[in-house]
Amino acid sequence: MKTFSPREASRRRAWVAPLTVTVAVLAAAAFNLVRRPPPAPLPPLEVEWVPTQPVQGHLFLVRVHIPPASGILSAAGEAGGETLHFHAAGSSFESLAPVPIGATDTIDAWVEAAYADGRTETDSLRIPVLAGAYEHERLTVSPRFGSPPNAEDQARMQRDREKAAQVSRDAHATPRLWSPHVVMPRDSRVTSQFGTGREFNGRISSRHMGLDLAGAVGDTVLAAADGVVALVDSFLLAGNIVYLNHGGGLISGYFHLSEQLVEEGDTVGAGTPIGRVGATGRVTGPHLHWVVRYGSTTVAPRSLLTLAGVRAAGRQGAGQYR
Question: Where are the beta strands (DSSP E) in 208-249?
Answer without folding.
Answer: 211-214, 220-222, 227-235, 239-247
